[in-house]
Amino acid sequence: MEVIELAIPALVFFLMFIIGASLEKRDVNEVKAQNKKILFLTLGQVLLLPLCAWIIIKLMHPPALVAGGMLLVSLCPGGAVSNIYSFLAKANVALSVTLTAFNGLVAVFILPIVVVTVFPALLTVDLALENLMVKQALQLVLLLLCPVVLGMTLRYWKPILIKKMMPTFEKIGGIGLLLLLMTILAQFQQKIAEQLSSLVLLALVFTLAAIFIAYCLGRILKLCQSDLAAVVIEFPVRNLALAALIAVNIFENSDYLLFAAVFFVIQTPIMLAITAWYRSQLSMNK
Question: Transmembrane stretches, by residue range (predicted)?
Fold first, then answer.
């Protein structure tokens, strides 16, 4: 467990650095040009995904630790892996990166407050606002905001080098996340086996619900096909490394990691299928 506790903050820092390094001037311009749409989609993730998780919990009555894990995942911002999916799908990568980065920045300020108010209200988690805000807010800022700023700074000063290194960075980040989640699966395989049916069903339902919410919001905003694909990919993919960080360092309960690990395993083939389907649609429309 000590290895996981050391690896999680490093992985979160690196993944947030990738998000910052991915931002280009055109992404900033896109925020200015589509600020209302991006704000609407960000609020959709911040508000609707936790609400969706809460409704699923109330309807399906999963064990407390499983419910807590799903709620925690729903509260986390989008994951950088969504940018890779959007790239593979030939969706609007710039929009995907912008949404991930903007959602991550918003999470720096909103996540500590939301976690400390939502969790005690919905689940039997004893968290003191003073403890979370004073002792953990700085850690969240260091691991979320600082790497994004560092990545953006390096992109500004060394754009050619960073652009050249980005594919390598993304591969390292993806492999790191995969290894972390596989380690969690291996370490907690007995506990996962005991609650496998509820974990798999919840992961499947939440993934499909997040996709449905994203599709509806995209239709409301009348997004083009490329933008809609990026949004549909963005919503279900959460920052699972950050969820692991909060579970281990703030809640001090690694059992909350069970849902995140199963969620990744169940979600990956679904997202790859969406990616392949969208690419095939592009080929058919040519």
Answer: 6-23, 38-57, 63-88, 100-125, 137-157, 169-188, 200-221, 228-250, 256-278
